[in-house]
Amino acid sequence: MSALNIGGSQLDTSWFLLLSAVLFVLGSIGVLVRRNPLVILISIELMLNSANLALVAFSRQLLNMEGQLFALMSMTVAAAEAVVGLAILVDIFRVRDAEDIDDLSELRG
Amino acid sequence: MALAVFFVAAALAVLGGIGVVAFHQPIRSVLSLVVVMLALSVIFLLLSAQFVFAVQIIVYAGAVMVLFLFVIALLGPARELGRGRLRFQTWLSALFLLVLLGLMWSLLQGIQYRQPDKADLSFFGTVQSVGAGLFTTYLYPFELTSILLLVAAIGAIYLSRKRIDDL
Predict the structure, then answer these.
(1) Of A42, A83, A88, which has the smallest distance from its Cβ to B33's Cβ?
(2) Does A92 touch chain B (CB under 8 A)?
(3) Could you tell me if residue A108 is inside a domain?
(4) Can you tell me the ipTM of this complex?
(5) Does residue A58 lie in a domain region?
């Protein structure tokens, strides 16, 4: 265990990593349980955010900028993913009402 | 002080995360996600990542979330009514993810970090140091992400174009 000195108080890096783990699990619960495709995309964003938190926490612990740079890259990738995912969703909704992801099973063999 | 800020922000983030999963209307999920992102940006500030903090607020809580809100406004309010076809799915997935959380928690026990690099904390995480990293060592990945954004923009325009048979 190693404590970070932030503004005079001692904060453990594990706390940040634990928060990141909790948010990741919440996001994956959203992906697995919810059936609205829009909410599934939102949950994926939550998981990407928790990964960013872990990257930044490690970056601070090791005093190495690479973690923060990687977090910035992953934000770019998340933005691109959201744009393409939402475009696909709008395209599906234009053809049909798809409020339940279970209804979108045409591609199943 | 930093301790109190951390715990308030962490509690807000977890509550927002629960809100993302639990609210039945997508627009409430999006607004909960905005709460999570703002709380996380405060935590980024605690971890002396000033530039990531600013980008998180401007790009994520600003641009990406507005995109989600636009799509919800475009598609109209959709509620999840009734239960899904796979009723056991909820409990099974919750069980699996609790196991996953337990595994991650046990990984965090007794974690050993290597010796931190020598870095000046007044310089660490500033726009200057981020720029120095992005435009020297990591120039090629940085340019590749710009190509990725271009591809995503072209793809989104292609997917959302007006089809001939729509007219």
Answers:
(1) A42
(2) no
(3) no
(4) 0.89
(5) yes
Rg (CA), chain B: 21
Rounded to whole angstroms, the Cα distance separating B83 from B90 reads: 10
The answer to the question of residue A94 being in a domain is yes
Domain contains A55: yes
Beta pairing partners, A5: A10
Which residues does chain B have within 8 Å of residue A27's beta carbon, measured at their own beta carbons?
17, 20
Q: Is residue B24 a contact partner of residue A39, using CB atoms and an 8 Å limit?
A: no
Write down the pTM of the prediction.
0.90
**Ranges of chain B with pLDDT below 50:** none
Residue A38: give the domain boundaries. 3-103
CB spacing of B152 vs A9 below 8 angstroms: no
Nearest CA in chain A to B134: A69
CB B142 within 8 A of CB A75: no
Residue B119's CB is within 10 A of a number of other CB atoms, namely: 16
CB contact A75 to B (< 8 Å) = yes
pLDDT band at A107; cut points 50, 70, 90: confident
In chain A, how many domains are there?
A: 1
Measured between beta carbons, the chain A residues lying within 8 angstroms of B45 are none
How far away is chain B from the Cα of A39, in angstroms, using its nearest Cα? 6
Q: In whole angstroms, give the CA distance from residue B131 to residue B59.
A: 17
**DSSP single-letter state for residue A35:** -
pLDDT at A9 > cutoff 90: no
What CATH number is associated with residue A57?
1.10.287.3510
The overall longest dimension of chain B from CA atoms, in Å, is: 64
Sign of CA dihedral A87, A88, A89, A90: positive
Tens digits of residue pLDDT in A39-87: 999 999 999 999 999 999 999 998 889 999 999 999 999 999 999 999 9
